[in-house]
Structures are given as structure tokens and as C-alpha cells.
Prior knowledge:
With 347 residues, the protein is an alpha/beta fold. 40% of the residues lie in helices and 16% in strands. The protein has twelve helices and 13 strands.
Amino acid sequence: MLYPLIRKFFFALDPETAHGLGMSGISLLNASGLAGLLAKPVAPCPVEVMGLKFPNPVGLAAGLDKNGDYIDGLARLGFGFLEIGTITPRPQDGNPKPRLFRLPDAQGIINRMGFNNAGVDKLLENVRAAEFPKKGGILGINIGKNATTPIDKAADDYLICLEKVYGDASYVAVNISSPNTKNLRELQKDDALDDLLAQLKARQEQLADKHGKYVPMALKIAPDLDDTQITAIADALRRHRIDGVIATNTTLSRDGVENLPNGQETGGLSGAPVFRKSTDVQKKLATALAGELPIIGVGGILGGEDAAEKIRAGASLVQFYSGFIYRGPDLVSEVAATLATMLKKTA
Length: 347
């Protein structure tokens, strides 16, 4: 019952200000041993995906903790895994403010953040200072390209990030689907995708030899894809032996929100309005992949049943971000309990 009161306070503030205060508050409660005030016990539901053993299939999506500033506080809320980033080789400010907008009537969020982050080296400092990875917690690191890097040189940025984070990541997520970096989604197209995945796979294999461990790699895709594009991406993922796929990022569509306050802001739409679109893409992707690699289902999860539908549509793990803003930490325990019950029945 605590979070609805807190949310009322936060929703009276500018979204980006509220975000910083909220994350700092989670860290403060964790440091003072009071994280239990926010978090309920989470049902254990161990699953193995991409060769990693997850204590439960409920993850935090990238974007909430871009620089890995709040890893330990977030981990105390019961997530089975955390994904931090998106990170770029060099620090960058992102797009001009305001760039984050709530659509409370639709339980949605529009952002045009533009990969604002402190750079990969700062993220690694934070990861190495955190307890969660040291205790075996599963930490995904989401990588992208700097806005000033030409699209034909994008692979260079991804390779720099992959090389730097490899030793500290449980898995690496490759973000080519944010709508807020100019031309980034061009990398989802046939030849560009083929070239990028070939280079990333070759570097992953070199790094596995160098570090003496294999760190899986997942590609994060957009929901704004047609059937032909979904099939082509599935073929490329199989061909290059990528370890997983995250479906999906935010959408450019404004279906159902176009007449709401902030509904016409540019950027990527997330939360409840993207649920159907992202789940449909995920289902088609699952059919095209035929179980050859796992899917992390993300997009519009605001309750346990939403997560269950992602699993029924072929996901092995789920993630959320906007749902966490609207529902708070209770969403973690609710989704974990729903999936534990569901997966027990199908075992």
C-alpha cells in the first residue's frame, strides 16, 4: 500500500526529476536496511536460459538504471536479473529536455532520452563497486552507439563496448532498436544486420578465449517490424548463432494514445499501450525461431497475467520498466508468483 502514496508525490514532479529521486530513495532504503518496506518476498522459480541460472524469470529492463548507479538497491526488490544501460563508448548528454513524458490515462510513457549516459568506463566502475554481481547476481549490460558516430561506423562502437563490458557482464544486450538515436534502426535491415552480427560474434568468440568464459549475447529489436522483417531477423540470429533476443523495445506508433495529453510527443512509447504490439511481434518471432534461441519478452507488462501471456507467446524470461513506474516493487513479486505457479503447472 505504500507505493501508491509515493507515486502520487512523484507524479506531481517532472518525470526525470522524479526518476532520480526515486532511484536515490531505493538506494537509501537499501543502505539503511529498510528495503523490506518496499519489497515483498518473491517466489523462487529457477530457470536456465542462455546457459545462465536465473533465480526467477523476472527482470528489470534497460533504461531505468543507465549507468549502474543503483544496482544493489534494485536487486533487493527481488528481480531475478537486472539489465543496465544503454551504455555508449563515450559519455553523452542525450537529447534536450524535456524528453520524458507520462501518459497516466493509458499507463504509458514516451521517452526520447537519446542514450544519455556517463560512458562505459563509469558504468564499469559502478558495476565493480556493487555487491550484487559479486554474489552471483545476473547482470545484463545493454550496449549502443554514440549519437555522433556515423551509422556506417556503428559496429566500432558496439565492439568497443562489448570488449570493455565482457568480463563484468552476465550477458550483453545489443540495442539496435531505440527510436531516439538517428538512423539506429537502420541496423535492423538485412545487410547492415548481417555485418554487425558477424563482427559481434567473431569478437565474442575471441573474448571467450581471452577471458576463459563464454558471455551470451542477445539482440534487442523493435516492435515496429513487419512479418518479412521478423523472419529476416530470425534467420540472421540463427545464422550468426546469437544467444537470445529481447522483444521488444518502445514503439513509434501512437495508436490509442494520440488524443491524450503528451500523446503526440516524439520518441518511443512504452507501457500498457505497447503490450499487444510487442507481444504479437514476439509471437511471430517465436514461430520463426522454432525454439532455436530464447526470447526475453518485454513491453507493456503491468500485471502477472501480462507476463504469463508473454511466456505463452514463447518467452523464457520477462522484463519491465514502465510497469515498475506505475505499479512499483509489488509488480516484481506479483509477476514472480504468477509465473512460478504457471511454470509449475507446465513442468
